[in-house]
Amino acid sequence: MNTTTLTDSQREQLRAQLEQRKELLLQELDAVQRDTLDVAAAASQGDLDEPGSPRDQANSMAASMVRDAEAARDHAELVAVRAALERMADGSYGECTDCGQSVGVARLLAQPSAVRCIACQSKAEARGHR
Ligand SMILES: [Zn+2]
User: Fold this and answer.
1) How many angstroms separate the alpha carbon of residue 127 from the centre of ligand 1?
2) Distance from the CA of 100 to the center of ligand 1, in angstroms?
3) Is residue 111 pLDDT above 70, yes or no?
4) Which of 15, 106, 120, 125 could form a cystine bridge with 98, CB 3.0-4.6 A?
């Protein structure tokens, strides 16, 4: 069995997964954006209860930092998912972006947006990239 090349049905399955993931991420990012706007609007209208104890402010700051971190992660994933869909369209999907070898079917099935083979991914992580 050839484990370095995707079959057509595997490719279709991954494409569907990527499309689904993209939609989900777009929805999440949209929700975060609406949330942020709501808070900003409430703050500018002075609608928030009590100007807030330092503790409340710290809490809401922590909450917004978590939200920002989640949004940043969602956004990074969205970029990766879109790039994977583009590579599918131009036929380079499944090739390692670093060495040009096959990323490997098992790896793609586990992580459809993977851009590197395991060897190059480990090297990239050692260099501090993801
Ligand atoms: Zn590689």
Assistant:
1) 14
2) 6
3) yes
4) 120
Segments forming the whole domain that contains residue 87? 9-44+53-92
Q: What is the pLDDT of residues 39-85, one digit of tens each?
A: 778 877 766 556 667 778 888 888 888 888 989 999 999 999 999 99
Residues 73 and 104 in one domain: no
Both 63 and 125 in one domain: the answer is: no
Ligand 1 centroid from CA 105, angstroms? 13
Domain-located, residue 112: yes
Instruction: Tell me what pLDDT residue 98 has.
Output: 95
How many domains does one find in the chain? 2
Amino acid at 90: D
Do 80 and 63 lie in a common domain?
yes
Distance, CA 4 to ligand 1 centroid (Å)? 13
Map tokens 């098992």 to a residue.
Answer: 106
63 neighbors 54 (Cβ within 8 angstroms): no
Distances (CA, A) of 74 to 28, 67, 112: 8, 10, 15
pTM for the model stands at 0.77
Tokens of 117: 């083979």
